[in-house]
Amino acid sequence: xxxxxxxxxxxxxxxxxxxxxxxxxxxxxxxxxxxxxxxxxxxxxxxxxxxxxxxxxxxxxxxxxxxxxxxxxxxxxxxxxxxxxxxxxxxxxxxxxxxxxxxxxxxxxxxxxxxxxxxxxxxxxxxxxxxxxxxxxxxxxxxxxxxxxxxxxxxxxxxxxxxxxxxxxxxxxxxxxxxxxxxxxxxxxxxxxxxxxxxxxxxxxxxxxxxxxxxxxxxxxxxxxxxxxxxxxxxxxxxxxxxxxxxxxxxxxxxxxxxxxxxxxxxxxxxxxxxxxxxxxxxxxxxxxxxxxxxxxxxxxxxxxxxxxxxxxxxxxxxxxxxxxxxxxxxxxxxxxxxxxxxxxxxxxxxxxxxxxxxxxxxxxxxxxxxxxxxxxxxxxxxxxxxxxxxxxxxxxxxxxxxxxxxxxxxxxxxxxxxxxxxxxxxxxxxxxxx
Length: 435
Known about the structure:
Elements: H1 3-23, H2 42-71, H3 73-77, H4 80-109, H5 116-131, E1 142-147, E2 153-155, E3 171-176, H6 185-201, H7 203-218, H8 222-243, H9 245-255, H10 259-262, H11 274-288, H12 292-304, H13 312-334, H14 345-349, H15 356-368, H16 370-375, H17 378-390, H18 396-430
Parallel strand pairs: 1-3
Antiparallel strand pairs: 2-3
Helix pairs in contact: 1-2, 1-4, 2-4, 5-6, 5-18, 6-8, 6-9, 7-8, 8-9, 8-11, 8-13, 9-11, 9-17, 11-12, 11-13, 15-17, 17-18
């Protein structure tokens, strides 16, 4: 057998092996087991399954085209190096399909875990509620999963997936497992939701333009730092605006690190210096919901990490940054991007519904009416629970049980509402019975 015919035979066999392995990659709907309440929303699951099925179909077509090319007139004349080059391109695409499958696989398989799967489904509902801004964009589906580590992260919808493939059909939020289950998971959840909202509204680009103008007009290099950090600060703003003090308390839990890390300034990091970041969160809370609790939290944070012992240069920079927070927040809170049609963030987020005094009233109402508690929108419910915990009205054990029960309720209610809607569809479509 010549090297040409041997190469053709071996590569054709490898191509058929790819097809065989591809056939083993089954839709999640027939491979993962979970109780109905733990399932993704139909919109999210359909988007994921359709995207992955399209990728598998395209790959299958590429493999078949390669096999046909090998057996055709051009392939029979091609050198082994050309055959190998074409097959390598197909095999790399196969790995892309598997990588993208794995992105969503962990989301699906965790739904089979007892309790955890249902809680994750409940968090999907919370995320959808926190992202809702119907007058300004159409929110994509959001799905959640747990992972190791302390911080959360988001793979935003409509951003490129690994391997240079297409764009994600849903937003995927990763949480630290150590936060399950308690109200402070809302801090991480809504912060990541804020990243998605900011992208949908084009907030970061708009704010960066405004910050560059400030740097140019004021001739002050501090504005360059605010520009560097604006991505994370906008997400923190969204979190404080949606869930109140639990956002700041959750942030403190994440950035309570050894002292060297809390004061470290890394110009390549989009996150503000941790000590400053908590101060900004407190200032945001005070601006949105004036209350003595924000000053108390800021003072407490300073007592955890006093500036004693800092080198003079770093201490001076921290002082300048902290003194500049009011000016920076004035720009942020009064910013009116084109996407909001002349309104500010404060106006569109309706913060009047999330004042600490109202949270306290709602919590007292809950004690007398479980039905009222269950009717509270999910993001608002997390804000109420977080405020009650901060006020000492709810012990951590009670908070954990209440949060778990609400997540289960939201998951179940979402599932039953979807099933009821599906059950009604034939009647809506057909009208009178068919005779």
